[in-house]
Fold this sequence. Notes:
Blueprint: H1 2-21, E1 30-35, H2 42-56, E2 61-66, H3 74-87, E3 91-94, H4 99-111, E4 116-119, E5 130-133, H5 136-150, E6 155-161, H6 167-181, E7 186-193, H7 198-211, E8 215-220, H8 223-235, E9 243-248, H9 251-258, E10 264-267, H10 270-285, E11 293-295, E12 299-301
Parallel strand pairs: 1-2, 1-3, 3-4, 4-5, 5-11, 6-7, 6-8, 8-9, 9-10
Antiparallel strand pairs: 10-12
Helix pairs in contact: 1-10, 2-10, 3-4, 5-6, 7-8
Amino acid sequence: MNRTISGCLAAAGALACLVSCGRGDGGKTIEIALVTKALDSEWWQRVKAGAEEAARSDAAVHLVVLAPEREVNVDQQVSILEDQITRGVAALAVAPAGASEVLPVLERAKSAGIPVLIVDTDVNWPSKLSYIGADNRRAGRLAGEYIVKLLGGKGKVAVIRGILGIATHEDRLAGFREALAGSPGIECVAVQPANSERTLGMSVMENLLTSHPDLKAVFATNDQMALGAVEAVAARNLTGQVAIVGVDATSEAVRAIQAGRLAADVAMHPEALGRDSVLAAIRAARKRPVAPRIDTGETLVTRENAAQFSGNAGVSHP
């Protein structure tokens, strides 16, 4: 928790510095592009809000936030990135939707002299200036440790995961499995993809309940899928009998925790992600030092602390 508070204080100081500096670089407009995986969910909209807050703190900055229509539309993200390179932006912050497809275009950005910062989903690319985001493996461990404790170390569990091959979901799954490794009484009976989509999450959960009627808990690697799973459980009148844990702590997910429909969640602080990404991109555009790793933190949200996250869910940094 102290790490997250320190991050907030550092970011506040950076914001103040940017405000005082104003157009300290000769009045030239600094064009920054933040390209996310999507903007079709509350979580990405809150990343955008944090980014815009940071950009407003500096009158010299012009920010664009762009994304494909859906997270699975990787080719569309590649086209967006190509357009921004052609525009000659001063810095590029990117949440890669697919590493293998996106890396060649990031190499083009590097060749054009555009600093590239990786956001939310890390990639193995030596030329990135910085990675800004939470530790997704640690988030998965938090979820797994909670489920192990909740079940008393015994029972069948399953995972509803995001798109195959996306590092965010691979890391969350890996962390979850690490948490379960020390509890031989916990059996993971299935890992099923639902592409980070609510309707698919509901459909996958329905199938899991049919295939495994003695299922005790499910870890969904984001809240869209978790909330779909909540609906499927409610439709079977099993609310409270099958524990669901998500990731992101969106406002709807926090309300579901408070109502007892969702067991827990892991907050990933999207406003901090957007804010810190843009602050780092501004520093990069001005050729100032940027830390190679900026950790935006993660927090387990349960019924005991959910009130801290209601209203502006995931913003609280206790």
